[in-house]
UniProtKB/TrEMBL annotation:
Top-level taxonomy: Bacteria, Bacillati, Actinomycetota, Actinomycetes, Micromonosporales
Keyword Ribonucleoprotein: no
UniProt organism field: Paractinoplanes rishiriensis
Annotated protein name in UniProt: Methylated-DNA-[protein]-cysteine S-methyltransferase DNA binding domain-containing protein
Top-rank lineage group of the source organism: Bacteria
GO biological process, one term: DNA repair
InterPro entries: ATL_DNA_repair, MethylDNA_cys_MeTrfase_DNA-bd, MethylDNA_cys_MeTrfase_DNAb, WH-like_DNA-bd_sf
Keywords recorded for this protein, A-Z: DNA damage
An MF annotation (GO) of this entry: catalytic activity
Pfam families associated with the record: DNA_binding_1 (PF01035)
Domain Methylated-DNA-[protein]-cysteine S-methyltransferase DNA binding: start-end pairs: 2-74
Length: 94
DNA sequence: GCCCTGACAGCAT
DNA sequence: TATGCTGCCAGGG
């Protein structure tokens, strides 16, 4: 779990990572799914890291925090596609 | 141990 | 891209 948060902290400005990518980067993959666990972890302990740099594969941000995330991403210079993140250009892999 | 739920992903439509 | 369905897995009741 710490590793997830640690990795999120390493995400550079203007870049983002998808839940799946994080799970994958940490080899948390148990088939294809730790993405869910990553999401859960972020939901409960993401309050100390740049959580707005973590989005799902569609570039969508977490329910209830869209606005906030949008602002921060904008401030970070992340390429946005309307209300979503332009994954193609903002996706980052360690 | 069973069932439901969820900041998810991949594939088909 | 939107919607629907199916895997997959940890947590909680």
């Amino acid at each position: 779990m710490e590793e997830v948060l640690a990795l999120v902290e390493r995400i550079p400005e203007g870049k983002v990572m998808s839940y799946g990518a994080i799970a994958d980067a940490l080899a948390d993959r148990s088939g294809r799914n730790s993405a869910r666990q990553v999401g859960t972890i972020m939901a409960r302990h993401g309050g100390g890291v740049p959580w707005h740099r973590v989005v799902n594969s569609a570039g969508r941000m977490p329910p209830g925090h869209e606005q906030e995330a949008r602002q921060r991403l904008l401030a970070d210079g992340v390429p946005l596609k309307g209300d979503r993140v332009d994954i193609a250009r903002a996706h980052w892999m360690p």
